[in-house]
TrEMBL record:
Name of the molecule in the record: UvrABC system protein A
Xref: Gene3D superfamilies: ABC transporter ATPase domain-like (1.10.8.280), ABC transporter ATPase like domain (1.20.1580.10), P-loop containing nucleotide triphosphate hydrolases (3.40.50.300)
GO MF annotations in UniProt: ATP binding; ATP hydrolysis activity; DNA binding; nuclease activity; zinc ion binding
GO biological process, one term: DNA repair
Record Pfam families: ABC_tran, UvrA_DNA-bind
Naturally occurring in which organism (per UniProt): Paenibacillus albus
Amino acid sequence: MTDSNQEYIVISGARENNLKEVSLRIPKRKITIFTGVSGSGKSSIVFDTIAAESTRLLNENFSMFVRNFLPRVPQPDADAIENLSMAVIVDQKRLGGGSHSTMGTITDISPILRLLFSRAGQPHVGPAHMFSFNDPQGMCPECNGLGRSLVVDMKMAIDMSKSIKEGAILLPDYKANSFDLSMLIESGTFDIDKKLSDYSKDELNELLYGKARKVEVQFMSKAMNVTVEGCIEKFTNKYIRRDIKTMSERTQKAVMPYIIEGVCSSCHGARLSQATLSSKINGYNIADLAAMEVGQLIRVVREIDSPVAASIIKALTDRLQHLVDIGLDYLTLDRETDTLSGGESQRVKMVKHLSGSLVDVTYIFDEPSVGLHPRDVHRLNELLLKLRDKGNTVIVVEHDPDVIKVADHIVDVGPLAGSRGGNIVFEGSFPGLLQSGTLTGDHMKRPLQLKQACRQPNGKLSINNATLHNLNNVSVDIPTSVLTVVTGVAGSGKSTLINDVFLSSHTDAIVIDQSAIGVSSRSNPATYTGIMDDVRKAFASANKVNQGLFSFNSKGACENCGGQGVISIDLSFLDSVDLPCEVCGGRRFKEEVLVYKLNGKSIADVLEMTVEQALEFFELKEVVRKLQALSDVGLTYITLGQPMSTLSGGECQRIKLASELHKKGSIYVMDEPTTGLHMSDIGHLLEIMNRLVDAGNTVIVIEHNLEVISQADWLIDMGPDGGSKGGQVVFEGTPTDIIHAERSITGKYLRS
Ligand code: ADP
Ligand code: ADP
Ligand code: ZN
Ligand code: ZN
């Protein structure tokens, strides 16, 4: 007889962070979803207890010798954790890696594509590694496989609104009365009175890039032969293809303003040598395929008829299908991974695991629905189900009701945040959750209300003819003094429109995104918001000592850890690990400093207070205002001294929001501010946005969350689909109007 406990991961008496002796059983080879308000303790169970113990067990498998080099991961604070299998954590940390890391390399699809060309490419050029831009034989010699090199900055070099005579060519060699300009005019090959914008494509090409040729010109009543060459081509040959360091300093100074880093002119960004690029399959070379959107690529690969490569084609289409399944069909294999968003990064990592052959693994996901439009959430669900059906245990921290619905088992953590959380308030099925009476259960039952009384704008900010990435000549007005929500499926062009195009001409806008606020490893909510400065002053004047003592990068700091409270251990082949400082026990200060008190509390006591406790403790006006702002964005539960690095992307975003709240008359741009927020916290966030608008600000939010969308004054819906099938504005108007908009996918989901 088997012990039925073998079918569960069993946790008893877990006490990490705010957990109150949590005991629970997580079914193996099933999908379990953890939900609950932000700060209730989901991560403390899933990451700090389950994942931490799994890592510790994994390390114990190594020999004593190897273990000496591994960090001693402390045992999680719990009575027992049993039946764990190896855990793989798929989080939203962005994929770094520089320009040599692409979608193709990170998903292991590139090697298969290279193998395909080495078997089926015509002409047959050689072994598979020849097709790699990381290989000396395969890489473009001009840019060393980077795809980018120095090129002429066309904005600086050419003024399309002028004629040649009016000075359309701005390059230094073509100044008024210069030899080059005189020759160009005398040669009679171009219309010197026509604006360049009126030139035909061929004429312009000849003027800019025409190959050198001899022309007879009349100069000072004598016939002479001169060489005419496209002005950009000439500049490139004369200054860029030569080693710039061999030129005089004066020349360097004169030409540098016209040179920028751009797409390599030899391989046009393909990164590969000409020999490699000449090998083709069905008319496409390997760079053509890498630059194709995955959705189209999979069709092209399926059409390849090559018996010798049949198994390679199968392996390739299987992997590409995973990318399509997870809603990344709008990406290309040559896309550099450091340009992917957090949600996209997480989904790319997921694909890597789906193609792998590991079984009986515990997969842990952190809000995988981030960045996904309601239309695409079902694809994520299918992937989670696939992982489970391969025999794995799937644990997901998630707030999205459409994901929660597919769970085999739901754990609701609460009832509230911080010290008022840390309990399991519900365990069971989805119908059970709806009846449970918990915050989560109750919010799931609430119907969506569409905003009726939308605010009237007092002006507009225009975007004209935007063409970056997939934008299809987009012109759109953003109304001022209202709440505008920009929606659309992933890859439709929301971030490109707002973060890249709009913000490039509105640099005064206040941007609140999820990027980590890692100013320094010492920063925490108190230092970031400026509360620390006021607190130090208060301690100094209460004790009649220098305020510098109370700073943890001063002489008051613990000498062992330099005021960090932790000792960071760097390992070349693993992430670095922080262990608590043995001297100060994580309190960061010397004993001499801790004897100074303010109303009975030491500086370390203050840093251990939650925002909520600090609000009760302090009466200083400035401190209270800043604490209130943190509380307003739902961060009552964080402690003042909690290192910024322990905060999630969503929490970072809300700290930024809190410290910008008091500015008036500004433009605010927020990128998915509901990330990490439980349904019951979203009402709170909306209140803050509305307060900002009521104070005269313009608020622009990129968001998929239907509750936020339904409460906008104005919606801009991008689409209709992702990538090349997107890039248009499909709807502009109010929430009550979008549900009638035929082309809007967002409208369709709001309706249902
Ligand atoms: P959730 O995942 O539900 O948002 P967490 O498990 O992250 O909640 O947090 C639960 C509580 O524990 C919160 O009060 C949080 O501030 C606190 N906490 C989380 N991580 C740390 C940490 N590294 N140090 C101190 N407190 C922490
Ligand atoms: P959304 O914000 O709606 O998810 P994005 O603006 O991120 O969409 O993407 C729109 C299109 O532009 C997609 O096809 C995407 O792959 C492409 N894109 C976005 N950022 C980059 C980049 N840095 N380099 C190349 N293509 C990009
Ligand atoms: Zn090149
Ligand atoms: Zn210390």
